[in-house]
Amino acid sequence: MTETTAQLALARAEDLILEIPDYPSEGIIFRDITPLIADGDALRATVDAMIAPFAGQFDVVAGLEARGFLFASAAAYTSGAGLMPVRKAGKLPRPAVTVEYSLEYGSAVIEAHGDFPRGTRVLILDDVLATGGTLAAAHDLMEQLGYEVAGTAVLFEIEGLGGREALGDHELHTVFTS
């Protein structure tokens, strides 16, 4: 895919993201990526854009539940890397490391298994960066498991909510911003 073709595909992909007001609670604008992932060219363009800055720098792609799974699965397949699901609490069948965090409309807990050797280079993927609580918790989780965070990529960053600052100096790549 040429650079111009990729740019056009990304512009089209961004147009496919719908904004749903007051979901899941009043005052929140939910970014519905369903139309984007339903379009093969848009999905390919966004996954390629998410992982491009980190090519050759990661061994595993970690996807955050639930929509991060979609991008992480495609990214792992495309890059030949392993896949690591980062789940909501209580979803994994055996002991896991857990981290509690705050998000823009409440609090939550994520967990993951330590299935990879210490020092494994992990690229963390999610769909949206808002306040950064989920991604900061994922970074903490990787540290507790002894993994190296190779970078973080999100499809969409909502600027002005402090998410980038919550991640500190970790390398962050966003495909789209608002």
TrEMBL record:
Its EC number is 2.4.2.7. Pathway: Purine metabolism; AMP biosynthesis via salvage pathway; AMP from adenine: step 1/1. GO terms for biological process: adenine salvage; AMP salvage; purine ribonucleoside salvage. SUPFAM superfamilies: PRTase-like (SSF53271). Residues 54-157 form the Phosphoribosyltransferase domain. It is an enzyme of class 2 (transferase). Homodimer. Belongs to the purine/pyrimidine phosphoribosyltransferase family. Catalyzes a salvage reaction resulting in the formation of AMP, that is energically less costly than de novo synthesis. This is Adenine phosphoribosyltransferase.
